[in-house]
Amino acid sequence: MATRSKDRDTPPAGIAAPTPDTAALLRELVAHLRQNRTQLREEWARRITRAQLLTAMTEEEIFAEATSVYDNYVEALETGTFEALQAYARNLSERIIPRGVETHEVVGIVLLLRDVLARSLFGKYHEDFDKLNRILDAYEPAANRIANTVAVGFVQERERIIRQQQEAIRELSTPVLQVRERLLILPIIGVIDPQRARQLTEQLLRAIRTNRAKVVVIDITGVAAMDSNVANHLVQTVEASRLLGATVIVTGLSPEIAQTLVTIGVDLSEMATVGDLQGGIEEAERLLGYKVLPLEELTPKQ
Amino acid sequence: MEVPILKQGLYLIASIQSALTDADLSELREALIQRVGKFRARGVIVDVTALDVMDSFAVRTLRDIAHMARLRGAETVIVGIQPEVAFAMVQLGLTLKGVATALDLEEGLAFLDRHAQSRLAQGKGRVEHD
Question: What residues have CB less than 8 Å from A220, skipping those under 6 apart?
């Protein structure tokens, strides 16, 4: 993705190899931005606060971040290389994502800076329209690319975190537990996506084989929502288990899930369902020929 | 490749050893149905442990065997479906509806014993002469 955006955003003039004229203009531009650093930085921070961006951060933090973003921005303009800025954007994202900063805020502040700087250029060169034009020609592509780099860096960092979390969830594998000889329970908690459903089924089928299970109780008390896809996966799991000779009892369908399933018309009539896990285990014991009795009933009465 | 059909008491056991062609499967079906009558078998076990693929024709043939054997007085149970095969089957919608399945040969025999007992209890068993 990074390479693609690089291709797309390279302006015709070529930032990497600027013409001598552009380079000179950029140098002049950078000198101007360095000179007015304090004032522009403050103006920017003020506009961030006014636009109610970065609300998760205090004013001091905004100002501190604004300063370093500003310096990195000017440096990228000066050197024409974006590696340092990219690294900085990643680093910044790493720090601010956990604090709940949204993508639109990051894009927003970079665009604000772009705007603040552009206005300052208008102010400086408003008497020399031709010069202003040439300055903007040099400034705009570079500024666009900087905005792009920061936004892409932020989104990439976010995606990396999401991937990491998905893996963490996937590794919280669902245990298949043997509660009695030939009786397994499979408590499912959380969201079932197609991939997880597949993994669950495979795991369960293997466990049926290795434990020689006759009855399986699948408890879905911890499943918050169910759509027709998930319901179909459940039906498939039940059927596959039956092909291995195991009976499946599904327990813990919440009122919401029961309503959803009936409303969307999923047919679960082939499936044995019992209200709660306790009932499911009792039913399973009955199928296996067990009977659980209190100890007093077993000891002969005196 | 011919599938050996073993007689074990009142049951017939067909143990599939390798992948079968459609013709082999049809042959197996005919041989089994014929022998159910010949040996007065009460149960048929088809062991598919060795199969790692089960296509729609195989599934249909197994279902046909079960239905035909039932018409001739024998209950059929398919044993030894591999977990991966079972998963693939349900994804293809091949679920062997109405056919008994069991984990392995031992379970299949236990199932047939239970089935025979319940039929006896219902008074549907055959008269046995000692």
Answer: A188, A226, A234, A250, A251, A252, A253, A257
Exposed / middle / buried, residue B118 (Cβ in 10 Å: 0-12, 13-18, 19+): exposed
Give contacts of A 187-216 with B, CB under 8 A.
201-202, 205-206, 208-209, 212, 214
pLDDT at A14: 42
Lowest mean pLDDT among A30-44, A204-218, B69-83, B115-129: B115-129
Q: How confident is the model at residue A9 (pLDDT cuts 50, 70, 90)?
A: very low
Note the pTM of the prediction, 2 decimals.
0.61
Of B87, B101, B111, the CB nearest to A242: B101
Given a cut of 80, whether residue A232 has pLDDT beyond it is yes
Is residue A10 predicted with pLDDT exceeding 50? no
Task: Please give the pLDDT value at position A5.
Answer: 44
Distances (CA, A) of B36 to B10, B71, B119: 10, 10, 18
Would you state the pLDDT for residue A32? 87
Percent over 70 (pLDDT), chain A: 91
Q: Which residues of A108-145 are buried (b: 16+ CB within 10 A; e: fewer)?
A: bbbebbbebbeebbeebbeeeeeebebbbebbebbbeb
For B109, the domain range is: 5-129
- B83 in A contact zone (CB under 8 Å): yes
B42-56 tens-digit pLDDT: 999 999 999 998 999
**Cα of A60 to nearest chain B Cα, Å:** 58
Is the pLDDT at A3 greater than 50? The verdict is no
Q: Which amino acid, A126? A: H
Comparing alpha-carbon positions, the chain B residue that sits nearest to A270 is B97
- Domain total for chain B? 1
Q: Taking CB atoms and an 8 Å limit, are A240 and B89 in contact across chains?
A: yes
Q: How far is A183 from chain B (nearest CA, A)?
A: 14
Long-range contacts, stretch B116-121, CB < 8 angstroms, 24+ apart: B116/B10, B116/B42, B116/B43, B116/B75
CATH classification of the domain holding B63: 3.30.750.24
Interface contact A201-B81, CB threshold 8 A = no
* Cβ separation B86–A241 shorter than 8 A: yes
Q: Is the ipTM of this complex over 0.90?
A: no
Q: How far is B92 from chain A (nearest CA, A)?
A: 10
CA distance A209 to A245: 10
